[in-house]
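User: I'm new to structure prediction. If I give you an amino acid sequence, what do you actually give back? Let's try with this one:
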Amino acid sequence: MSGLPEPPQKGRTMLPSGTYVGKVVMVTGGGTGLGKAMATEFARLGATVAIASRSAEHRANGVRAVEEAGGRAVDVALDVRDAAQVAAAFDQITQAAGPVDVLINNAAGNFPIPAERLSPNGWKAVVDIVLTGAFLCSQEFARRCVARGAPGSILNILVTYIDGGAPGHSHSAAAKAGVASLTETLAVEWAPDGIRVNAISPGLFPHDDHTASMRANRPDGYEAEWNRIPALRVGRTHELGWLATYLCSPYAAYITGHTAVIDGGDRLRRSVRMPVFVPIRELIPETPR
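Assistant: Good question. You get back a string of structure tokens that encode the predicted 3D arrangement of the chain. For your 289 residues, that looks like this:
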């Protein structure tokens, strides 16, 4: 058995060359991981990409990736939890490159921890970044699109573990489930204004920016998870980027309120016998925080 085939090589584009020429794409959390991968693919198709993040180092990495892909980048300091900063970020992007046409709500916070050890501040930080941040950015984007009578596209990044329970990720799963609901609600509200709202729910996509706490749960590395997935391989970040560019493009003009799952069938996996259950407290030993 060889599993699902590998995608075409990184550097190829899925859509016609120049699909996003003249368009401005804002990616929150665009300097690392999946955000950077999506930013790169929009850049390959001609977009000006605004890399929005709290971290100057992360923004620099995202800007570098966009420019190496042949695109133009805008560096935007932003804490998505702050409505005033969100409005200022859109102002900055508009002044530097023009109004935002596509918004990717990718900024996220997460750390694995049993629910009874999760502090109120830990809960609030993750929920505010993931859920409140997605709402504030989407609201500001939509207001501006409506004011200028222009269409727009929003793409929210979810997680597959919002279905079926997510031990160790109560904060993240709850917040992402909220974003999933928000995706459908805003899609209905804003479709008459020409604004589409969709989501991607990625499976396992190894990249160089996983946090230390996330890597600790996979001591053999993310690539070693291939035999736990029906596809018999992990995802490649550029194929996630291709899906993002399609869903936000004119070629998906009739798609809204949809969540596209890209996980090699991982969410569907079933065995004749389920593996031995291990309580979350054993998987994540208590450590000082």
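You can read the tokens as a compact description of the fold. Here is one thing that stands out. The chain has one domain: 24-283.
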